[in-house]
Amino acid sequence: MRKIITAGLFLLIGFILQAQGSTIVDVFQKGEEGYACFRIPAIVQSKSGALLAFAEARKNNCSDTGNIYLVLKRSEDGGKNWSPIITVWDDQDNVCGNPVPIIDQATGKVILVACWNPGECSEKQIMDKMHSECSRRIYVLFSDDEGKSWSAPKEITSAVKLSDWGWYATGPCHGIQIQNKRHKGRLVVPANCSILETKERHSHLIYSDDLGNTWKLGGTVKKSGGNESSVVELKDGDLMLNMRNYNRNESKTRSYAISKDGGETLSEMEYIPELIEPICQGSTLNYLNKGKISHKILFSNPASIDKREKMTIKLSKDNGKTWPYAKLIYSGPSAYSDLVNLRKGNIGLLFEYGENNPYERIGFIAIQKDKIKFSE
Predict the structure, then answer these.
(1) 304 near 278, Cβ under 8 Å?
(2) Is 126 helix (H, G, I), strand (E, B) or coil?
(3) Which of 225, 239, 119, 123 is nearest to 186 (CA)?
(4) Where are the alpha helices (DSSP H) in the chain?
(5) Which of 70, 272, 300, 373 could anchor a disulfide with 89, C-beta 3.0 to 4.6 Å?
(6) How far is 342 from 263, CA to CA, in rounded Å?
(7) Residue 259 lies in a domain
(8) What pLDDT band is residue 165 in, cutting at 50, 70 and 90?
(9) How far apart are CA 62 and CA 36, in angstroms?
């Protein structure tokens, strides 16, 4: 098990990037095209270099319940300009959400795993199974033209959800395609569930070895308290599941677990003292070195114990053991985010932010390679 060195042993060294030298480009804004709110960002870069930014388009208000579409916008110039909204999945008054996109590096196919539930059912009702129809289901969709058009959703619930689970959520953030030889090409999606009887929350993984056509339930973290999660492949071939943590009496930081078998099983939960959180989603990303997995891991979240604010990117240069480098991206209200590798070694961040609350906009910022202390 990796030994986590506490934050007190390190100075928090900033990235070279200066805030005034980068521009946040608004991708989605509340009120756009008649949608009251956009939430839950996820982003990937296509094989040709186009950026696909996903979100939930919430029709009537910003609630997690109600009429919610899955949408995306595309950018073909590195995030400077974005297309009009493309609807990925609309099921009338129901919830279509929690996007987890993955790019197949061989064919360029986009695989999108997402969740569905009746629009009148809240998360609490689904956790309690107050009505038989209040069920959370899991689907996969495909695009062969880099997100311009989409297949009909295909249900995979029976393959990845146990009968005694209530709530279920994929990601939300990008998934991964494994590069190491033993499981090369495997798609891995981070997820979480609740147990009907106890209402305990657990994080887990699901995976596919045939480009998303069929799926299997992978490892589940035994200890409760894990929730929305992100998965990253490490340099040694292991996978690290980084989790939103509800065990506030134990730690006000992110938790993690390791898989040594491509996501089929997960280790015991441990905490990461350097990655503080206010109970909120976060994103992890393996920084690619000429397209190859490296020992450098990026993490983004609102770096605050009490509030959803201070959107920050942190960097580990030792496979996630320590996190001594950090850069504040936006000091104001901010919440969910997703990281993406860009061309020429640059990175991008898609995140929720605003002036009065974190849910006014979803913005994108590109960070140049030469502005980051990757080489020191």
Answers:
(1) yes
(2) helix
(3) 239
(4) 123-128, 157-160
(5) 70
(6) 26
(7) yes
(8) very high
(9) 7
Q: How many domains does the chain fold into?
A: 1
Closest CA to 173 of 254, 241, 244, 229: 229
CA distance 111 to 154: 11
Dihedral (CA of 125, 128, 131, 135) sign? positive
CB contact set of 216 (below 8 Å; sequence gap of 6+):
159, 160, 206, 207, 208, 209
Q: Write the pLDDT tens digit of every residue in 279-304.
A: 999 999 999 988 899 999 999 999 99
Q: pLDDT band at residue 376, thresholds of 50, 70 and 90? A: very low
Nearest Cα residue to 372 out of 16, 93, 119: 16
Structural domain includes residue 218: yes
Please say whether the beta carbons of 310 and 302 come within 8 A.
yes
Rounded Cα distance, 129 and 196, in Å: 7
The rounded mean pLDDT for the chain is 92
Please write the tens of the pLDDT for every residue from 119-159. Answer: 999 999 999 887 778 999 999 999 999 999 999 999 999 99
Say which amino acid occupies 227: N
Lowest mean pLDDT among 19-28, 98-107, 181-190, 191-200: 19-28
Q: Counting every residue, how long is the chain?
A: 376
| CB-based contact 15:299 (threshold 8 Å) | no
What token pair was written down for 341? 């590798």
pLDDT class of 52 with cuts at 50, 70, 90: very high
In the prediction, which pLDDT does 6 show? 34
Alpha carbons within 13 angstroms on the beta-carbon side of residue 285 total: 32
Which residues are within 8 A (CB) of 40 and not within 5 positions of it... i.e. 6 or more apart? 54, 55, 56, 97, 98, 99, 172, 336
Nearest to 216 by CA among 263, 149, 167: 263
Within a domain: 99: yes
CA 316 to chain centre: 18
Rounded to an integer, what distance in angstroms lies between the CA atom of residue 125 and that of residue 97?
Answer: 17
Instruction: Please report which helix (H) or strand (E) contains residue 155, including its range.
Output: strand 154-155
| CATH code assigned at 205 | 2.120.10.10
Which residues have C-beta within 8 Å of that of residue 31, sequence separation ≥ 6?
A: none
Three-state secondary-structure class, residue 104: coil
Residue numbers of the domain that contains 154: 7-371
